[in-house]
Write a sequence for this structure.
């Protein structure tokens, strides 16, 4: 049996990890964003469909374009973050299945012919991949500030004008600061969430 | 700056981890399912909404009930797995917001009055939580076999007849065996998935 990770690792990615609203001024270089992908890309997706597409918003002009699409409460912290990841999904993810899931030659057509299945699969799996990205970032020592508060129509128009990619959520990334850390929210009890049959 | 986890930890949860189709006969006791929740519950959700609800299917009668709802290719491996987690979402997750997100007293009504927002939030966040569960299981040394291949209408009727919970995905859990491990699928290149602006 594979042993559990040591406690400090479990603390870093789960037990002591927090949603950060502020970051230090240390930059997040391209090399780290590549290291990040080289971890989270291994998280499993249905039929290896990998629908998530990421735009790392880091330059001042790109941040300015993002600003107009954010909910009021998310503007200041996002403008100040070293980088903001837009996690989108590719509505035509299935075009990659012939190379990504050759075991089932009919996989592409299964999704191409069923818009509801394709859209549910893109939403579910790009959300799974957003969580893999968060866990991978924490594994690398980065702090995350995930957000759903933005105008998806405006964001899609600004960043994905051809309509193929659809924004799912945002994650601010950087080196964590303790500033503006809210008290940690409670969690539901085991019995409220889990049943064993 | 927080350092990255050591390589063996990154290997265990990302780089060497695989989707398992077979498990050893070692059991997965209640205490381990509680340990699992005490990790993955800390993963962040929007407004701390925590919509995921888990049914651990472990007994023979519960497995039999699940069997009829599975896609043909998922039957044998699921019947043989020590435990199968049904990851569902609570369509009325927002009833818990007064205790789980007291910072925004209007949070419950925001979702109670907007069925589309509630349903998107439940789907997105229960999917994030499914990924947290997978990463937490791997952190504890468990192997996972996530699946989307089942009949959701039949599964919801069998396990959630009052209509409040909706199945999202399934994850077989146990101690990994190398039997029936498929060759690992490729992953998209950095440039196919990521843009830096």
């Amino acid at each position: 049996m594979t042993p559990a990770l040591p406690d400090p690792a479990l603390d870093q990615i789960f037990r002591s990890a927090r949603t950060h609203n502020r970051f230090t001024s240390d930059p997040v270089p391209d090399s780290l964003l590549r290291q990040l992908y080289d971890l989270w890309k291994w998280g499993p997706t249905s039929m290896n469909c990998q629908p998530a597409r990421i735009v790392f918003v880091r330059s001042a002009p790109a941040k300015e374009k993002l600003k107009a699409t954010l909910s009021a409460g998310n503007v200041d912290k996002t403008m100040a973050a070293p980088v903001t990841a837009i996690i989108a999904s590719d509505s035509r993810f299935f075009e990659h299945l012939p190379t990504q899931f050759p075991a089932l030659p009919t996989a592409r057509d299964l999704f191409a012919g069923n818009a509801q299945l394709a859209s549910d699969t893109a939403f579910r799996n790009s959300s799974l991949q957003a969580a893999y990205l968060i866990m991978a970032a924490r594994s690398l020592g980065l702090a995350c500030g995930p957000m759903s508060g933005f105008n998806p129509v405006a964001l899609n128009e600004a960043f994905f004008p051809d309509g193929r990619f659809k924004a799912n959520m945002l994650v601010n990334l950087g080196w964590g600061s303790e500033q503006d850390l809210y008290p940690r929210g409670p969690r539901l009890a085991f019995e409220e969430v889990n049943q064993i049959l």
In short: Strands of chain A lie at 52-57, 83-90, 143-147, 165-174, 194-196.
